[in-house]
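Protocol step 4 of 5: obtain the predicted structure for the target chain.
Materials: sequence only (see below). No template structures provided, no constraints applied. The aim of this step is simply to have a reference model before the mutagenesis design in step 5. Sequence pasted as it appears in the construct record:
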Amino acid sequence: MQNQEEQAYLMPIIEQIREDHPTMSCRAMYHKIQPHTIGRDKFELLCKVWGYASQRPVNYHRTTDSSGVIRFENLFELAKITGINQAYVSDITYFELDRFYYITFIMDAYTRYILGYSVSDRLLTENTTLPAIKMAIKTRKNNLPKGIIFHSDGGGQYFDKNFLILTNRHHFKNSMCEFAYQNGKAERINGVIKNNYLKHRNIRTYASLVKEVDRAVHLYNTGKPHKGLKMKTPLEVEKEQLSLQKQTKPMMTESFDAKIKLGGAFSPA
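Step 4 output (structure tokens):
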């Protein structure tokens, strides 16, 4: 069972790696990813079956769907997002040092504020999406309106049983894309944090990566103006939205404290 779960976790990451490293061998990817339940030969065979042994991969979602895993309807594609707490977007990306490490972000689709994130050396749910969503819920002080769309790709971490327990408990509407471009907001935040912040820092260890992700998220949330936000920062838009929400429909007593800096990234070993 764990073997099948890790296969579902691996597919989106392998697709990212193949896009960034078109000529990297399956064996090199294995040593970079270091999966815990799949051996080297099995990993290489899976890469060939999924179409990742060559430079031009097949659509991994077809393999995922044919194996009967959970897939949620894409609710985000046609949704009209007009304010805070209507939709959150999430994705998992990797950061390359001596091996690959994994960063998960959860962002409010309207304010562009990163609500939760995690840094880990494993791809399992308890190391990626679970700590990230717990941070997001804590950021909103466990006081969320019902029906928030939670949009992601089809990675196994987003349909894991323990992850779904939390989304069900807080009345999220789970949503999944079929193609990467259908999760563009989350894809972009991956690139912004990695290319605009992390790659300009001297990161050589896992511990320093955790520290620099903390720094990058804080700077992004509080200091980066967005053209799509009329050159305001995500924090400024958050404060405006929450103030407006209190005036028009006080559904939350105090869902966000702008003065509190986000704590350290979750970094389970």
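Step 4 remarks: The first strand starts at residue 87 and ends at 96. The beta strands are 87-96, 100-108, 114-120, 149-152, 173-176.
Proceed to step 5.
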